[in-house]
Design goal:
The structure is a homodimer of 447-residue chains. With 447 residues, chain A is mainly alpha-helical. The first copy, chain A, folds into two domains: 105 residues, no CATH class; 333 residues, Na+/H+ antiporter like fold (Up-down Bundle), CATH 1.20.1530.20. Chain A is built from 18 helices and two strands. In chain A, strands 1-2 form a two-stranded antiparallel sheet. Chain A is globular, with a radius of gyration of 22 Å.
């Protein structure tokens, strides 16, 4: 493929791009993104793989690793010239105009939509959570979740520093990216195996929810450390304090806010009043988290958990699902597009370290979660299945990578290694779980 | 209120704005916009007014006419300094950074979302249409629709030119903005009056659908003329030809595309396959319309009409409604925010002409539709009610204003006069219709 690097610097700074060129470019980008991701998601669905993998792969295809249609480099813009030609032909714009319009659309719109998409996703994950169920399997789930967070986090961080000489902050980030468990993927596999309602299934789901919470808290603290660029006692103390106050405030005010939400929505008369009010709550809590130097997604997740206790939960889930189905993929596509997989090309001698790093992270990610399963005292449970069920990192692992990229902390090698870890852990759970769990789909379907 | 005009020109061109400031600004803009429009929509719902009025009013409150929080002027940026202070305090950004981030978010994101919102809206309107019903009341509806488009269009255009000395193209645009009928508002009022299923009700709905189609076709041709800046025979012939070919192609291929859509979606295995495929069709047809110099919304509307004949119609409506409920308001908010109502301030002697213009347009808009009702040959029908039912311009009238503003054809006086016409016609239909129709809610509710 013959790719040219366009140099933005040679373009006049104040070039006026006509609104119709901008609009046509917006349409074209949306078509390319939706078409590719639809194709990849469909392929994944046929291979019984989770849709998030399809979105990630479509991003990798469109991005810097392959077609270079969706690129985010500033200054020198590395865009596939076929896209620029297409825009020029469709709109009659000059090449220079087309490049400015396209890179403008890409950086401003894709990243904003991706940011809103990950907020919508975490809001939905929070909203889907069932706190009553969590309390029932609480003690066992807490053991699995706690150990399943600490083991990969510590193992990953220490290993990255000791074996690969990674600096402290990126190493912490890499370790933290190994903590989360994807509820979506695990639940889907368990359902297909007919094991979702078993005690093991309930423990896995409960632990996955706790994992998400712990993972997002770790992310909030780590990103904040990265932004300040220093780890000192005062800074750590401030972050732990603000995280604690935030979580405590949610825990204390949760039912009060939920009751107030129910009372207000009952009086609302506008057509989509509850939906708009719910989104407002998510945005405001995201802004609050952002202002006290935590991550916006923590606020959105907390808003979802609060609203999971309202009478509107089902109605809101119903209305938010199609919205999230359109917005959240953009986040994973952007993550994939920004990942330069060429740093892991086995043919290139310079990639060997990255591949070893990926192999190490995968081993830590798998062993950490399986070991966590065996820490449950009740030996009559299928503890191997519980551990294996916690392996897939999925969405939340990718959220770590995406946010890590946005604060510029991860090297391209570490980013690619973490992405590969997420992909592999997500792929092996559906393979290993059926082997550990006797298939009883029939009993589940009758239940 | 003490408003300052910030001058973008004094800011360094290449200022690097940190991603966290951009993100915080995005969150803040979203909160301000959703909060204000939610409040206005709720107020309208309580006054039994259509939500679109609430969205328009919230835009006017936020925009250049009042608070100046949502402003789109380029170069000198007229932003309410309270917002800039808020961003600075929340993010720690400098005033200059906050201004660049905010105006960047406003122009790029709000306008893109507004554009996608109006595409989603027209797609939904097309998808909701019931072609079978239209065929049944066809002849009468065609008379009402045809006359109801021609009379206000010709009356408005000629009057604007003859009485107010408006140039040909803006006058055509002003006349064209009077042609559409808002299905949503009319249907809601008829339903409340218990008259939706009557023959009059069916004729009104049928004529409103045809009106939308004719109005959007006129808009496509007029905007294209405006973009080329000239009315010559070759140009007109090209536009009429491309419009005819486009409509004929849709009419011919409609069932084939719908059948293909049904066949493909039946085979899709990914979770939101049909939804994503439907949106892809809307985007691609919008792009095709755009490329052959028609309006993108015409393509989206046609995609909706095509998909209204598929088995997925209900499921798609269900999933697209929450999405449109979030996106489309942004379009009306942006229209309101861009409208400078001060040009119609009665205390200002310079506004007298604009007010006369608005009064003239309102009279033409009302008389044109009522006269169209009386052109139906069947005297046993309540022809006054049919004419009155066609009066509200609502969404589609505002789509004309929004697109007129984007191609820079309407003077601020004419824009404000058309907006006032849309508002007044939308407000008087719910007042006049009950007077023309004997109330029979009971019979409708039992049906």
């Amino acid at each position: 493929m013959n790719l040219t690097t366009f140099n933005l610097a040679v373009l006049p700074d104040s070039m006026e791009i006509s609104e119709s060129v901008i609009f046509a470019t917006l349409l074209l980008s949306a078509i390319i993104i939706f078409l590719t991701s639809h194709f990849c998601e469909e392929a994944c669905a046929r291979l019984r793989l989770p849709p998030v993998l399809g979105q990630l792969i479509s991003g990798i295809i469109l991005g810097v690793s392959a077609l270079k249609i969706l690129t985010f480099t500033h200054g020198d813009v590395d865009i596939n010239p076929m896209v620029i030609d297409l825009i020029c032909q469709a709109t009659g714009a000059s090449t220079a105009e087309a490049i400015v319009a396209y890179s403008h659309q890409l950086t401003a719109i894709s990243e904003s939509v991706a940011n809103l998409g990950v907020i919508a996703l975490l809001f939905l994950i929070g909203l889907e959570s069932d706190l009553d169920r969590l309390v029932k399997v609480g003690p066992q789930a807490a053991i699995v979740a706690g150990a399943g967070v600490i083991l990969p986090f510590v193992g990953g961080t220490v290993g990255l520093m000791a074996l690969f000489g990674v600096a402290t902050l990126p190493a912490i980030f890499g370790g933290a990216a190994l903590t989360a468990t994807s509820i979506g993927i695990t639940a889907k596999v368990l359902k297909e195996l007919g094991h979702l309602q078993s005690e093991e299934g309930q423990i896995i789901i409960g632990a996955a929810v706790l994992d998400d919470l712990l993972g997002i808290l770790i992310l909030a603290v780590v990103v904040s450390l990265v932004k300040d660029g220093r780890i000192d006692v005062a800074n750590m103390a401030y972050l732990l304090l603000s995280t604690t106050v935030f979580v405590a405030a949610i825990a204390l005010l949760r039912t009060k806010i939920a009751d107030a939400f129910d009372a207000i929505t009952q009086k609302l008369q506008s057509d989509n009043g509850p939906l708009v009010l719910a989104i407002l709550l998510a945005l405001i809590m995201a802004a609050i988290a952002n202002i006290i130097h935590l991550e916006a997604i923590l606020g959105a997740f907390a808003a979802g958990i609060i609203l999971s206790g309202t009478r509107q939960q089902t109605a809101l889930l119903h209305k938010l699902e199609p919205l999230t189905a359109l917005l959240a993929p953009v986040f994973f596509i952007v993550v994939g597009a920004k990942t330069d997989l060429s740093v892991l090309n086995p043919a290139n001698p310079g990639s060997i370290e990255g591949l070893w790093m990926a192999a190490f992270l995968i081993v830590v990610a798998v062993i950490g979660k399986v070991a966590a399963g065996y820490l449950i005292p009740a030996a009559e449970l299928n503890r191997l299945a519980i551990g294996l069920g916690m392996i897939p990192r999925g969405e939340v692992g990718l959220v770590f990578v995406g946010i890590g990229a946005s604060v510029d902390i991860l090297s391209s090698t570490l980013t690619a290694a973490v992405i590969l870890t997420v992909v592999v852990t997500t792929l092996i759970a559906p393979v290993l779980l059926p082997w550990a769990i006797p298939n009883n789909i029939a009993s589940e379907q009758q239940a």
